Amino acid sequence: MEANLSNSGSSYDIVGIGNAIVDIISHEAEDFLSRHHLVKNSMSLVDEETALAIYKEMHPAVQASGGSAANTMAGIALLGASPGY
Question: What is the 3-state secondary structure (H, E, C) of the chain?
Fold first, then answer.
């Protein structure tokens, strides 16, 4: 697939391409992590069934946009450039 950006009317200094990942931050006991085969302070990609099982048991959490490409573009914007994602 070829993108045609010449007529888009947008101008970027840099464009990031990556997966839109959501970070879920929750304070849980060690046994919660063991039951769900999760490693403390790590990242795990899970399917919908696993996510629903985890959400059902976990304490209130904070959700934040994540992913290295998205986070990099956010940082570049803070430096004054015009990034696209």
Answer: CCCCCCCCCCCCCEECCCCCEEEEECCCCHHHHHHCCCCCCCCCCCCHHHHHHHHHHCCCCEEEEECHHHHHHHHHHHCCCCEEC
pLDDT tens, residue by residue, 33-54: 999 999 988 888 889 999 999 9
Tokens representing 73 are: 């573009």
What pLDDT, in 10s, does the model give residues 45-81?
A: 889 999 999 999 999 999 998 889 999 999 999 999 9
Q: What is the pLDDT of residue 22?
A: 87
Largest CA distance in the chain: 55
